[in-house]
Amino acid sequence: MHDVMHRTGTAHDFDFLFGRWTVHNRRLRRRLAGADEWDEFTAASVARPLLDGLGNEDEFRTDHDGGMVGMAFRFFDPKTRLWSIYWADSRRCGRLDPPVVGSFVDGTGLFEGGDMHQGRPIHVRFTWSQTDTPEPRWEQAFSADVGQTWETNWIMQFSPAEDER
Question: In this predicted model, what pLDDT tens digit does every residue of 14-36 receive, in sequence order?
Answer without folding.
Answer: 999 999 999 999 999 999 988 89
